[in-house]
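Our preliminary data section would be incomplete without showing what the modeling component actually yields. Below, a chain of 308 amino acids is followed by its predicted structure, encoded as tokens that our downstream tools consume directly.
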Amino acid sequence: MKPILITCYVNPDIDGYAGVIAYAEFLKKKGKSVVAGIMGEPHDEAKYVLNRFSLERMDVIQDDELFDEVVLVDASDVNGLQGKIVPEKVIEIIDHRKINEANRFVNAKTQIELVGAAATLVAEKFKEENIEISQRSAILLYSAIISNTLNFKGGVTTDRDKEMAKWLRQFIEVSDEYWKELFTAKSDLTGDKLITAIKGDLAWFDFGNTKVGIAQLEIIGAEELIKHRADEIVATLHKIKEKMGLDLIFQNILELELMKNYFVAEDNQIKTLLEEILEVKFDEAVAKRDQLIMRKQIVPLLKAKLEL
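Predicted structure:
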């Protein structure tokens, strides 16, 4: 029999990457024949964790051609798979997004629970079934929870995330300042890294008849970035909008040290929408918000507004 492919969306962040590796380990220890693999390039933060702890990288796959069954971790929408996974092959989904397309995977058993990180759901499986977890998986899952919850300061954070982070930490050695080390690693956007980061963490959604692109950056030093490179961000968003045929697009930048958001947009329609749902005010292309909000929290608000 062919092994089951464990994967996530194309170009995964640390949460997707960690979840794939750890869930594959969990299933192997349960006697399943599985292969962990990603499509595309992991985000810089994931690469940093892998290098920082000298962890083995998983295989890169092109598509699901060699597999009859697929499990998705930290993924539940077709767009994020970019046509590389046949939805009918998906037999299981583990995710944490309120807005999802789980219904399009007709053969999948789904676990979608509103916690801060998919890594939390995977960690709970090890703990609940008393299955020994490797240091590799523990490091990755812990890092993913820290990242996705913004060191437990993000609005998506739950007690379950905190509990699993505490449980995982007993298996690894990191300082209390590890969160800052992690966030600093993904804040280097010098040169072409900025454009690469914008394109690498872009997601798009269909809200009624409106196709909306949302790019997200989670960094330290957002104010300086906006001050010096706002025009470059706007130009990059415009090019993406034209290339992808989007109706609207904006950039969400989370300032991880000062706990603020900056929004960058060119189009007046998306500016007006964001001003209404987030109670912000744009000054030319930029708006600021003093409380952190993540893309996954903004998406339901836009959906409610655009699908009236």
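The radius of gyration is 19 Å. The chain has a mean pLDDT of 95. Preliminary results of this kind motivate Aim 1 of the renewal.
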